[in-house]
Amino acid sequence: MKTVNIRINGESVQVPEGTTILKAAEQVNVKIPVLCYHPDLPPWAACGICVVKLENSPKMVRACATPVSEGMGIITHDPELHEIRRTVIELILSTHPNDCLKCGRNGNCELQKLAADFGIREQPFEQRIREIEPDTSTPSIVFNPEKCVNCGRCANVCQVMQGVWALEFIGRGENVRIAPSADDTLNDSPCIKCGQCSAHCPVGAIFEKDETGKLLAAIRDPEKHVAVQIAPAVRVALGEAFGMEPGEISTGKIYAALRKLGIDAVFDTNFSADLTIMEEGSELVQRLTKGTGAIPQITSCCPAWTDFMEKYYPDMIPNFSTAKSPMMMQGAITKTYYAEKKKIDPANIYSAAIMPCTAKKYEITRCEKMYSSGYQDVDVVLTTRELARLIKAMGIDFASLKDEKADSPIGAYSGAGTIFGVTGGVMEAALRTAHKLITGKELEKVEVNEVRGVEGVRKGEVDIDGKKVKVAIAHGMANVSQILDEVRDAREKGEEPPYHFIEVMACRGGCISGGGQPYGTTDEVRKKRIAGLYKDDVNSAVRCSHENPEISQIYKEFLGEPLGHKSHELLHTGYTP
Ligand code: HC1
Ligand code: SF4
What we know:
Elements: E1 3-8, E2 11-16, H1 21-27, E3 51-54, E4 60-62, E5 73-75, H2 79-94, H3 110-117, E6 141-143, H4 153-161, E7 167-170, E8 177-180, H5 196-200, E9 206-208, H6 212-220, E10 225-230, H7 251-261, E11 265-268, H8 269-290, E12 297-298, H9 303-312, H10 326-342, E13 349-355, H11 359-363, E14 380-383, H12 384-393, H13 415-418, H14 425-439, E15 457-464, E16 467-475, H15 480-492, E17 501-505, H16 523-538, H17 549-559, H18 565-571
Parallel strand pairs: 1-5, 10-11, 10-13, 12-17, 13-14, 16-17
Antiparallel strand pairs: 1-2, 3-4, 3-5, 6-9, 7-8, 15-16
Helix pairs in contact: 8-10, 8-14
2 iron/2 sulfur/5 carbonyl/2 water inorganic cluster (HC1) is lined by residues 231-233, 269, 273, 301-302, 325-327, 355-357, 360, 420-421, 510-511, 514.
């Protein structure tokens, strides 16, 4: 790789050609302030806070978008630059409400931090706030244009990373603002509720719909038996809100914290991820060996993805697995199997789910099949961020909690269940069980390396008993079209489908970087969370869904067999264009 020699504040440094000034400065531990820049996204150069000087030149450039060149001398900090940056921040503050105490981002807002770092105490510019009502039209996120600082990060992530284009800049000059496309409500826009805009917003303009009050009300209600499930990806991220490293597995502490909050039954979505594999794996085997459904089979546990598919690829609905997501399966069996076993009236069960995802808030009332127990199967979804706030507000010292176990049954999980939270994980878990179902034999080596990795689109072939199963994986919604268009093309030409099985997750890296995870997710953080879930798999006594003893128990005592009558009633769903 070609390198260039530059000076940053007089210090010589060699960096690869093409490196931006911002990245080069990081290499000598110089932090240039930013607001519109986010490492996940191409530089936008909208805010101007990262402006730096070039030696022997009157020119100032934006560090986020300017590549270094041989011999360049850069000054990143001096009193003049400080004043310029301070003025930029003051101008942004003049269009931003001063209600930090009541803002959801109070304490972790990037604008608030800049104002604090620059010691801003007064407001020299006239206050001009946009008076536009918050958009509360989706069940997942709230968009408050008053707080928007026009940094463009939300529109950028929605368009570039997710390929959805639900958000855009509209208007001209000083009236320019971010809005849902065609200035409609978010719910009427193409929005798929993934929440990536909320995870990338530096301020409190886009925020998960806070439903902590609903869970607290249920806990206070003496009639209610409150059952909570936690998603795979929560266990490697929640700890970050309490000073733990990304990827540190805190499952036992989460169970303990939930009991301290007053939860009656603590379950794990990983259990029902195993259940999903029994159903979805059997469905795949039937499609492959008996030709009883469309090929390729496509995973359907990600609700942002199912929303996208219904909107943009309705012709592929027959390819979706009809297996409900693990979260919805867990809700259904909590209010049926568990209720029967514990002799609790399901009307009195309050079923909550802690998820890394904002689209999960939408999924729980998505269609009538989400009420398969006769009640709403999952009553409320809180994101990882909401649970972190609740734990803090309740004065629980999370990091020092002793590990506890989940309740049983419907709490135990296999390593296959835990890797659902990683891109390629659902595929790998399904292949572990499909191998057993097709060959009658266990895999000698359970790790299916062909489907692991972080590239946005991955394709491979897995050998099951001499049959080559062609697979494809896409994550980050903008990467999906490439694969689906191949499937469509083959179908239109009357050719064999290019794949047998496709896994799609809306968020980059899978649920580990869902839109409801702690702020500050970057590729470095993603890698750590992914490693955490693979470690959880390796540490699991049981690695395959079909070997989870509580899975055998529920089929024996209640469900009968995968794809049987009861499973169809409780564990499967449909999709509408
Ligand atoms: Fe996911 Fe899933 S893996 S969708 O990414 O299938 O949210 O973590 O809970 O339901 O299990 C999310 C994660 C999660 C479901 C499972
Ligand atoms: Fe775009 Fe996702 Fe935000 Fe909707 S939730 S506006 S699809 S980033």
